[in-house]
Specification:
- The chain is built from eight helices and eleven strands.
- With about 260 residues, it is α/β, with parallel strands linked by helices.
- It has helices spanning about 10-30, 45-50, 80-95, 105-120, 160-165, 185-190, 205-210, 245; strands at about 1-5, 35-40, 60-65, 70, 95-100, 125-130, 150-155, 180-185, 195-200, 230-235, 250.
């Protein structure tokens, strides 16, 4: 695992986007296409803005999947991850191939259908974050580390639902759906590379537990340490609780 810490969120996001663009272009050069997994949420705003602004990525050769989606939520809802990806990734790049999790009516069927497409070929890179409760995608603690299903229907815990309210997606905890379709832990770990983007001081405790604590289902993101090609991008605030040796130097600039 590589951990990179930057002076602030914009600098961190630009550095992560540069690596993401390189990985995508390397996959296209090797196989003629790249298959990616996109994360959503407030933590990914700056990263996706920097990535979609890159002039070097051939988006016409990219196929996209996403990590998760709420059960029963319309694509028109402000918190819909399908809407998020349309506005922040697909419309900006004209990606021709993308697979949406439509869990408005039959979540299990959506999980099976998109899971079959996902399993058809290797994933080149997965973009992920870490939740305030340590979740990875919507795998809240205690996460299922054993299932081989590509996508699963999960229950969202109260801490996760409070985070969604705190980020402004919903007016109250009661308004947050209680279930979601989430990519499974094992499926995430099948990606050839993982880029984990985690800004903000409210994530500091989860970052510390995930990177320095026990690898355990009660801290789902801790499993990332078992993958051979993970790069974690932090800003100074999200890295604040890490030991200096783990945190590494704070970078004032992002020209790598």
């Amino acid at each position: 695992m590589h951990i990179k810490t930057y002076i602030d969120r914009p600098t961190m996001s630009r550095a992560a986007a540069r690596q993401a663009g390189r990985v995508i272009e390397e996959a296209i050069a090797a196989r003629g296409q790249a298959r990616i997994i996109a994360a959503t949420g407030a933590s990914q705003f700056d990263f996706l803005a920097a990535l979609t602004a890159s002039p070097d990525v051939d988006w016409q050769a990219v196929e996209m999947f996403h990590l998760d989606e709420y059960v029963g939520l319309s694509i028109d809802h402000p918190a819909s991850f399908r809407r998020y990806l349309l506005e922040r990734l697909i419309d900006k790049t004209s990606i021709p191939r993308f697979h949406f999790l439509n869990a408005e009516r039959d979540a299990a069927a959506a999980a099976r259908s998109v899971g079959q497409e996902l399993s058809a070929a290797p994933i080149d890179v997965a973009f992920v974050g870490i939740g305030e409760n340590g979740h990875l995608a919507f795998n809240d603690p205690p996460a299922d580390f054993d299932t081989d299903e590509p996508y699963i229907v999960v229950e969202l815990d109260e801490a996760c639902r409070r985070q969604q309210v705190g980020e402004g997606w919903f007016p109250s905890v009661e308004a947050v759906p209680q279930q979601a379709v989430s990519m499974s832990i094992r499926q995430i770990l099948k990606a050839n590379a993982i880029i984990c983007v985690v800004p903000d001081g409210r994530k500091a405790a989860a970052v510390q537990s995930s990177l320095e604590g026990e690898i355990t289902p009660t801290v789902p993101a801790s499993i990332l340490r078992r993958h051979e090609a993970v790069t974690v991008y932090l800003d100074r605030d999200s890295a604040a609780l890490l030991e200096a040796a783990t945190r590494g130097p704070v970078r004032e600039r992002d020209d790598e």
